[in-house]
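Researcher: Please predict.
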Amino acid sequence: MNDAGGAADRRRHWQTSKRLTAALLVLWFCATFVVAYFARALSFDFFGWPFSFWMAAQGSLWIYLALVGWHTWRMRRLDAECHAQGED
């Protein structure tokens, strides 16, 4: 394996990882701060509860779990792709 190919793979891995992390942080911010900031405006019922209350009690936790799961799944795929390309 030449060093130039390995450096390009590492750079692609790092760029993809940074983009994924930034996107997930934006979703985390929306689930945490945007919902709390607009809680009074989000006054519709969701599963029999006001949406803002449901998000504070359970919804945001489900979103956090989904974000962690998505990050883990995607990074495992990315690591496998970059490792497979690095062995050529």
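Model: The chain is about 80% helix and 5% strand.
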